[in-house]
Design goal:
The protein contains eleven helices and twelve strands. It has helices at about 25-40, 50-60, 100-110, 120-125, 140-145, 155-165, 175-185, 200-210, 215-230, 275-285, 360-370; strands at about 50, 70-75, 80-85, 90-95, 250, 255, 270-275, 310, 315-320, 325-330, 335-340, 350-355. The chain is globular, with a radius of gyration of 20 Å.
């Protein structure tokens, strides 16, 4: 997950405002690039690997990180890979970037005619939703964070606080049925306004699984990761299903953190992946060739006054007068992630770290060209 809710630590924050087309930007980018190229690698950051231009430019911007994987994407060229202590096959928790995979699962189900974006909680759950205040909430509302469902359910709060203190997984004890039951007990507030909700997207993924009769992790594999050839991307759900050699990440302070598999809340942030797989995935989303087609551009909520809009689990933020940045970030107790692209230039980036420190600022600078790679 990501951002500023420290229980699931995954809410996308405000995009930094920069004047991309101002006359001074090329000069500033050149200075930044030169400084990065000559700066030493910060202590604690892993040994540079892969594309030397990328590692030289990014090193000084990754202070406080340890193991990092980067893929620079261009629709007309092969991905460029680089890393610090990591090759493109190293697995990371991707946190709330998982939400985009849940969006792909939903969009694919819509394409197959199994659901529509206007399908409601009651349409999927039937009598189980009787009497619930969210019975008429739609999948579109869940996928755009406008359903009025709090980010973290009240019953989770005590466990979340304790788990955060102990650097554990705050979602581990609640399975899919409990996550649904917790959602059905919610009284929505500010419905129709965008308010980031981990619980809402967890419910979204579980509803698609219910409608198709296939568990979420199997649905993810059969309809997204396997068709795209993402051989190292999966949702373990429970800690005993983690791949052999799964490594603990680090808190912002550098302490070891337990893996987050998230159990029933996995559709909101429980996926593991690699730089190589994420490059394939983001390129397929960018060109609309993957499951769900062009779902990343299918706006479900348009922000006021040219502000943030939301497609099917993808954020749209203005970069300049014409072109948005389409993106999602992620952060768990010990990992951080960012994926996105500049719609005008087609330049995209994947950044994965084993430290819970935001990657948003440097990723944006790459997308806008302020840091030239």
């Amino acid at each position: 997950m990501s951002g500023h809710d420290r229980h699931v630590t995954d809410e996308p924050g405000p995009v930094p405002r920069r004047t991309v087309l101002a006359a001074g930007v090329p000069a500033a980018a050149a200075v930044l690039g030169m400084t990065a190229a000559t700066a030493p690698r910060p202590a604690g950051l892993g040994e540079p690997q892969g594309d030397q231009q990328i590692t030289s430019a990014l090193a000084e911007h990754l202070r406080g990180h340890r193991t990092v994987s980067v893929a620079l994407l261009d629709p007309d060229a092969e991905p460029r890979f680089a890393g610090f202590g990591a090759d493109p096959q190293r697995r990371f928790e991707i946190g709330s970037v998982s939400k985009t995979f849940t969006g792909a699962v939903l969009a694919d189900a819509v394409d197959r005619g199994e659901l529509t974006y206007e399908s409601t909680v009651a349409d999927v759950l039937g009598s189980e939703a009787d009497g619930s205040a969210i019975a008429d909430v739609t999948l579109a509302e869940l996928a755009s964070h406008t359903a009025g469902i709090p980010s973290v359910a009240t019953p989770w709060l005590g466990r979340a606080f304790l788990s955060s203190f102990l650097r554990g997984d705050p979602y581990a004890t609640r399975d899919a049925e409990q996550v649904i039951a917790d959602a059905l007990a919610v009284s929505p507030s500010d419905r129709g306004e965008m308010s980031y909700s981990n619980h809402g997207v967890a419910l979204e993924g579980l509803l698609v699984a219910k409608a198709t009769g296939v568990p979420y992790e199997q649905l993810l594999a059969e309809r997204v990761t396997e068709p795209l050839g993402l051989t190292s991307t999966y949702a373990p759900i429970l800690s005993e299903n983690l791949h052999q050699g799964a490594q603990r990440g680090h808190t912002r302070a550098g302490l070891r953190a337990a893996p987050w598999t998230m159990n029933g809340a996995a559709p909101a942030g429980g996926i593991w992946s690699t730089g190589a797989d994420m490059a394939l995935y983001v390129l397929a989303v960018m060109d609309g060739s993957g499951p769900g087609g062009d779902f990343s551009r299918h706006l479900l909520h348009e922000g006021p006054d040219g502000g943030r809009s939301v497609a099917v689990n993808w954020m749209h933020d203005p970069i300049d007068e014409r072109d948005p940045k389409i993106w999602h970030n992620g952060m768990t107790g010990g990992y951080a992630a960012f994926v996105g692209w500049h719609e005008g230039t087609g330049r995209g980036i994947v950044m994965l770290s084993d430290t819970a420190r935001s990657l948003d600022a440097i990723a944006l600078q790459v997308l806008t060209g302020e840091v030239a790679l």
